[in-house]
Amino acid sequence: MAVDVKGELFAPVIKNINTKTLKQIKEELEIIKEKAKSGRFSSEDLKGATFSISNLGMYDVIQFDAIIPPNHVGIVAVGKEVDNKVKLTFSFDHRIINGKETALFIKRFREKLMDENYLKSLSS
Question: Which residues of the chain register pLDDT less than 50?
Answer without folding.
Answer: none
